[in-house]
Amino acid sequence: DGGITQSPKYLFRKEGQNVTLSCEQNLNHDAMYWYRQDPGQGLRLIYYSQIVNDFQKGDIAEGYSVSREKKESFPLTVTSAQKNPTAFYLCASSGPSGREHSSSTDTQYFGPGTRLTVL
Amino acid sequence: GESVGLHLPTLSVQEGDNSIINCAYSNSASDYFIWYKQESGKGPQFIIDIRSNMDKRQGQRVTVLLNKTVKHLSLQIAATQPGDSAVYFCAENMAGNNRKLIWGLGTSLAVNP
To answer: Which of A12, A35, A39, B24 is found 20 to 30 A from B105 (Cα to Cα)?
Structure first.
């Protein structure tokens, strides 16, 4: 079954450590996105990538880094420069092979999320 | 029940009633709108979408209405069930916006049995 996977589901980090969150999709989507969600809040865009080997900063990119070496994968690294990293991180993808009766290739489909906690 | 605004309000309805969740979108040039449902601890799930050349679209138990004159979008859920309890987000897309979505802050729907 096609979809988007994120791992791990829960992640604990000590202060000063970098951690990498995984996002993989087998939907053959060109575009991928990373969002941060704080409790009771909406989604804020961290980084996005429209095509392999290219990515752009979103609204809150400071303290984060990404890579897009493969179409299927868009890992997010939370660096020690991110002062308040505890949050729920969501990965999404969009593209021509959309599903769920969407009428647009711009519809984003989400993974299950990774909850990051800094100890 | 009905809600207004972008500050994560809470809408509480009785099971079996109809729910109306509202969203005031930001950009008059937006041409595509989506409603998502997010259950606690999960990623948002696509519900229904609508293009700007339409003013109404129906799905299974859900209807989206678009009023471009006042930049207003609503999601109607018929015969609300306990499984509908979630946070609902509207999102808008503008052609040429690098495929980014502009997100509303969400509305929390609580269904009382």
So the answer is: A12
